[in-house]
Amino acid sequence: MNKKTKLAYLMLMKMNCKAAAYKSKKYKYAKKEKHGGDGENEKDLKPRSPVVTLMGHVDHGKTSLLDYIRKTNIIAGEFGGITQHVGAYNVKFKNGKSITFLDTPGHEAFTAMRARGTKITDIVIIVIATDENVMPQTKEAISHAQVAKVPIIFALNKIDKVNSDPMKIKRKLSEMNFLLKEWGGNYPSQEISAKSGEGVDQLLEKILLEAKKLNLRANPNKPAEGTVIEASLEKERGYTTTILIQGGTLKVGDYLVAGTFHGKVKLILNERGKSLKKEYPSKPVIILGLNGPPFPGEKFKVFLNEKEAKQFVENKIKLKKEHKFRFQRKPQITLEQMTKKIKKLKLIIKADVDGSVEALSDSLENLSTDKIVVQIIYKNIGLISESDILLAVASNAIIIGFNVKITSKAKILANKKKIDIRLYSVIYNAINAIKKALDVMTLDAKKIIPTKLVGTAKVINCFQHKKIGTIAGCLILTGQIKRNSKLRLIRKGQLIYSGELNSLKRFKEDVKEVNKGYECGIVIKNFNDIKIGDIIELY
Q1: For 235-274, where are the E strands, in sequence order?
Q2: Which residues are bridge partners to 352 per DSSP?
Q3: Which of 9, 174, 205, 239 has the most crowded Cβ, counting Cβ within 10 A?
Q4: Which CATH number fits domain 219-327: 3.30.1360.140, 2.170.150.40, 2.40.30.10, 3.40.50.12230?
Q5: 399 touches 420 (CB < 8 A)
Q6: What is the 3-state secondary structure (H, E, C) of 485-499?
Q7: Are residues 190 and 199 in contact, defined by beta-carbon separation less than 8 angstroms?
Q8: 7-16, 94-103, 178-187, 417-426 — which one is most confidently predicted on average?
Q9: For the segment 175-194, what is each residue's pLDDT rounded down to a tens digit?
Q10: Averaged pLDDT, 78-92
Q11: What is the pTM of this model?
């Protein structure tokens, strides 16, 4: 760390300390209290409302349930008055209790926030339609909630339908090792109808009971801090930011920093558009005044004045620039790094059919020893998607694909996040690769699985030769191609063949290597089923 970076770092820490020590008539502080709540004084902590996120499969009734709960909100007034989606709202009940609900775009956004180190929810409600089944997206939602390590409550919806079968859902959940409390397990559940409202009151009671067990508390007597839910640019009002206050009290006139943006809070609105002078922990609000739109999941905090807020942002930007190149070059996790660093191998399994998923998962889990555990944190059928990449980011997992493709968006995100994805078309190859990795982890050997990617080439033409077979006319996209390299042939995101490069030619002449940007002819050893558009990865 050079002198400028060190100075910026020290000033950043100083800003944090000043924000924590800020005393005025607006706020009461415990002596020598740290900003952020790490050193909170017990007497300053007050009970707060639980923050609840609803997740589940499309069309299983999440929105209907949220709408019904919103109608019963005794402080909301006319339901028709709610004209805009703000991502979060607080519901107050007749008994004086309240719950904050987050209306996120899906579990991908939920996990993206968690991947940034943001714990934004206290409880997750998994909504399942009893007239259907436990769908793939439901399984994904459950996995994301488990990774976040938050309590789960199952809401079994649509019990008013003729073909409703709650018992089928309960059996399926038990097969997935989610035994409900009524069957002697640990997971609360409630049969509901979001349409008629049957069972919704009981569900809310179970949410409050779970919150009571968590003993949720926060200190309202300090500058506000919390998390950004969403942000947008409106023509009439400028940048509007929906935030969740997780500690302290936010007031009009406060100087607030969220991510790398700052500004004076000019206006505070609740989800119904009512103007507020101040708001407390566990409450979502819309604020106006920031000079830009922070990313969802960014932390925010309040400072003494505009000068200190700007200084904090400037120092934060300096540190980001200093470390940007270093972080870009450092991949998050790879199979080789796992063999060196940890004794638990976390895997995400995606395959083409259920049978393959179960067979591969069982085979890999059986490789666990008394010293090393193979942990399948998520398994499902279908394409490797952005959701899988985000889950791998949040849990430091390796993705194993069996006879499946990767979506284009997922591939871009995986490259950006440096996620290690292994594609296989033969189950024994996958098992052997993981077995070798476990051997390395056990023996702490220097030798690792030789899969360092050295170059990629795209097939732009194919030529048939009587003696040689298929010659692939290729353009080198990345790195360098060397003769006698090992290779993988990828077709539309799916692994077709793993083998060796037999010969490498440039203008009918044998060469030892070809660099990025040049064209060449490649012959794959014992394999001729090559098509235009195939990608050849060499390692």
Answers
A1: 238-247, 250-251, 255-258, 261-264, 267-269
A2: none
A3: 239
A4: 2.40.30.10
A5: yes
A6: CEEEEEECCEEEEEE
A7: yes
A8: 178-187
A9: 888 999 999 899 999 999 99
A10: 53
A11: 0.60
